[in-house]
Amino acid sequence: MIGRLFNRLRGRRWLEIVIPSLLLVAAVLICTQQPTILTHMQNLVWDSFQRNKPRIYQPLPVRIVDIDEDSLARLGQWPWPRTELARLMDRLTELGAATVALDILFSEPDRISPKNLQNFFGNDSNNTELNDALSLLPDSDAVLAESMRQIPTVTAYALLGDERVTSSPATKHGIAAAGDDPLIFLRNFPGAVSTLPVLEEAAVGNGAVNYVPDSDNVIRRAPMLLAHIKETVPTLAMEALRVAQGASTYVVK
Question: For residue 46, which phi and psi values (nearest 5 degrees)?
Answer without folding.
Answer: -60, -45
